[in-house]
Amino acid sequence: MSLSESKRYFEKFLRNILAPINRELSERYALPENDQISTEVIASILREINRFMYTQTEEIARMKCATPYGEVNYFSEYHKFWEENHKAILGIHVDEEKCREVAEKLEEYYHPFSPSSVMDVEGLEPQKIADARLFIAIQDFGFGLPQNYYELARRKPYLFDARELLSNPNYINEMLTELGVADYQPDKRIEWIRRCAELLVNNYNGTAYNIAEAHNYDAVEIRKMLVNAGIGIDVKKADMFLRDMQEFGVWNLRRFEEVSVAPDMNTMRIALRTGIVHVRMPLLSSFMDVFCYQYDAVSGETNKAWRKVWEIWRAIPNNHAVSSPAYIDFLIYNMGRKCCKAKKRRCEVRCSSREQRKCVIKKLALTECDGWCIFKDICDENRKKLNPPKSISIFGRYGWTTSYSDEGGGLGLRC
After folding, report:
1. Taking the complete model, does pTM exceed 0.90, yes or no?
2. pLDDT of 247
3. Would strands 277-278 and 64-67 be described as parallel, antiparallel, or unpaired?
4. Are the beta carbons of 181 and 189 closer than 8 angstroms?
């Protein structure tokens, strides 16, 4: 396709950029008819976009931004701009009225269930459950695991034994191979597993089971320790770990009500589509979410929103609310996976009778759904196609800290 045939796409882009600034100018703007001049104009515009977005000038390189891992250099003017303004631009906040509507649906439809119906831990000692779950929690398995890790702990218990992992480093590789992730960011995973094993050996007599007693069974204190331990655990992963320890009866935690619904792709998708997390516009692609500020903002508001839903649910007269937001995580997570997918939504297409008979959500966590999403009447047309954010690693070989260019151009993210 020659420039003269395709330049209308770029021309439309420029008109759309101009529209909120000057509608009249937007409507009459056109690129020069001469292809040579058009090429020069387009090249200049693209160069400026690239400079603003991804070029570390000498001036910007002298500025620092704070991260949970210490100060780093800004790498572009956009980086600094996006850090300071992303929340205002997104207009992100928790919508309490929508939280009330969702809470009322949970009161109408939610059915408490036994966690043993979801994950089989029969025959595993509490210590083995805790060890297996912690070594899995430190990983990032957003794509799902092909292997049942509790079954793996039965077959090869040494793979989740901290002392064995430190004495025999090959066991770490074996664990990752068994889990089917040996080729997916292995350096990062190996380091996290090693650090986790050292933490357990040095502070908890070699087992995660002892963590609760050492911290007086306080869920908030345990979460704080895990997040600050340098083993790859953030608040989301820590809450998932604590939830499972409580649900499986491994620990009896104090302040368990402080544990929240984990804000992953599925729970964020439903939060955005129901509107309990309000945004001004569809979210930006991860390629524009420099340093994952958008992702962190949506994640944080999702955490607050599901907690607000739970608080409102608990305040409904004669309610049947669960004792912690964490206990609705199974339902919301699986609704995102099965009912409210990116392009297939159960508010538009009803489950067949056969699908309903096989549905684990309907079987375990709902009194009835009749093949429709229980939030069908809450999500409006403007929101029901919203997608959750994705993130690019801030640090590391392929992260944001290596993605920028200098004034010589080129460079950027690698795959």
Report:
1. no
2. 85
3. unpaired
4. yes
Q: CB neighbours (10 Å) of residue 241?
A: 24
Of 250, 190, 192, 254, which Cα lies nearest the Cα of 222?
254
Lowest pLDDT segment from 36-45, 95-104, 142-151, 181-190: 142-151
* Nearest residue to 280 via CA among 306, 251, 301: 301
Q: Which of 153, 118, 162, 121 is nearest to 363 (CA)?
A: 118
Q: Indicate whether 162 pLDDT > 60.
A: yes
Helix segments in 204-234, DSSP class H:
211-214, 219-228
What's the confidence (pLDDT) of residue 397?
66
Indicate the pairing of strand 277-278 with strand 93-94: antiparallel
C-beta of residue 81 within 8 angstroms of C-beta of residue 60: no
Give CA–CA dist 28/44, Å, rounded. 20
Instruction: Give the range with max mean pLDDT: 221-225, 263-267, 358-362.
Output: 221-225
Q: Which residues of 287-315 are buried (b: 16+ CB within 10 A; e: fewer)?
A: eebbbbbbbbbbbebbbbbbbbbbebbee
DSSP 345: B
Q: Are 379 and 275 a contacting pair, CB within 8 Å?
A: yes
136 exposed, middle or buried (CB, 10 Å; 0-12, 13-18, 19+)?
Answer: buried
Distance CA(357)–CA(327), nearest Å, equals 23
Residue 42 parent element (H or E): helix 35-54
Q: Are 332 and 262 in contact (CB under 8 A)?
A: no
Do 75 and 60 touch, CB atoms closer than 8 A? yes
> Of the candidates 132, 123, 115, 119, which has an alpha carbon nearest to the alpha carbon of residue 209?
132
Structure tokens, 399: 């992260």
Higher local confidence (pLDDT), 410 or 201 = 201
Which range among 116-125, 208-217, 381-390 has the greatest average pLDDT?
A: 208-217
CB neighbours of 25 closer than 8 A, spacing ≥ 6? 18
- Spatial separation of the C-alpha atoms in residues 172 and 190, rounded to whole Å: 7
Q: Which DSSP string do the residues of 349-414 spell out, in sequence order?
A: SPPPHHHHHH-HHHHHTBS--TTS-TTTTT--TTTTT--------SSSTTSGGG--B-TT------
Strand partners of residue 345: 340
Instruction: With residue 50 as reference, give the H or E element that holds it.
Output: helix 35-54
| DSSP 8-state class, residue 110 | B
Mean pLDDT across 75-102: 96
